[in-house]
Design a protein that fits this description.
BirA Bifunctional Protein, domain 2; eight-stranded mixed β-sheet; five-stranded mixed beta barrel; OB fold (Dihydrolipoamide Acetyltransferase, E2P); binds magnesium ion; alpha+beta; binds 4-amino-1,4-dioxobutan-2-aminium adenosine-5'-monophosphate
Amino acid sequence: MQPAEISGIGQYTGQEVLLKGWLENMRSSGKILFIQMRDGTGLIQCIVEKSVLGDELFEQAKMLTQESSFEITGTVREDARAPGGYELGATGIKVIQVAEPYPITHTGIGDREHSDSFLMDHRHLALRVPRQNAILRIRASLIRYIRDFFDNRGFILCDTPIFTPSACEGTTTLFETEYFGDKAYLTQSGQLYNEATAAAFRKVYCFGPTFRAEKSKTRRHLIEFWMVEPEVAFALLDDIMQLAEDFIVEIVGRTLEDHRDLLTGVLERDIASLEKVQSPFPRVSYMEAAAILKKKGIDFEVGGDFGAKDETVLTEDFDRPFFVHRFPAAIKAFYMEPDPVDPTLSLSVDLLANEGYGEIIGGGQRAYDLDFLKKRIAEHGLPEKAFDWYLDLRRYGGFPHSGFGLGVERTLTWICGINHVRDTIPFPRLLNRLSP
Ligand code: 4AD
Ligand code: MG
């Protein structure tokens, strides 16, 4: 018997195949069962007729409950009305395991029967429902588009360590751990290492899990997330903004090409707004953004960082992602190059996704003056010893360079048009959740 997967079932039209999977749903009309089968690659309706299978097999098929695992043989038939365009006329069936009553209805997330915390507790099972399945399928593609973008432009992938001896993005969000009698921290960003590899390979990127011990319980914060970080030798702030823009246009465009059906059909995403993600992206300075907030009557103190609400309000004025550049140096990391026009500002940049989503990219131009950096490290209360290797990059052929970091989950939250970042990673790590 020809083993097959549902996603490629069309090539077997008229032939008999063997499918293995799980029961999503079953309807019965006396002597016929209509079984919705899911095999992880797709969904197909199987028509199980008593007159074809005989009494005994038919009775076994009737025992199948939601998420029971089974094998089925049958003839592939084209059917324009069927969801995937095909159905299976069953010729045989074999039960693998009859599932206990499944705690989640097949419509799953989005179904008001289940509370968020219930679904999070049952995350290992909720991954099977269509909505969650669609998001994670798009995630896998998005990661591929991200890698393709950099690989196709001559960037060298240089993996950076997860255990690190020091902070990169401020000491308040460091995850501390013990390292053979010493202290170590889980990485907050691969950037400092990227700066070293950029001197070796010119254009580099790292892509991996990133950790922030953030006591934030917002819909934008994960404790563990995935970040891609390009770094480019001799690039200035404007160059890195252009790179970020080209990058976003490409990864959103490819998602639309490949996943229009999941976005509109399963996630009910308004695609029109994603189609507007084209160059050029607006670029506003921090000071201009602060003025926009003031004009809208928002109580925002110039000099401070934008909160999630401020970002959301800012996005109202734009129909595509936009850059905010030159944040006050005082609210940014120690490594930022000061703006030569006004040294209280930094050559930093965030990219904010529109439709209320807010920051998905943070980056900027790196300081490369040795004495300036030593001063900044001291001002930030960081141990200079731990940064000695980093300062070497300013001793041995210092060079202007810039880069950024994009959070995969925040980007996917925006692309999918969903509410909470937790649904964009298979097993989210949140302030109050380490399980499953
Ligand atoms: O703005 P961040 O903190 O920038 C950096 O870490 C730089 N060192 C990157 C660089 O220049 N190489 O983080 C970058 C991005 C954010 O814009 C956001 O998308 C994501 O990482 N991010 C988070 N995503 C989910 N949960 C969190 N707690 C996040 N913190 C940052
Ligand atoms: Mg940031």
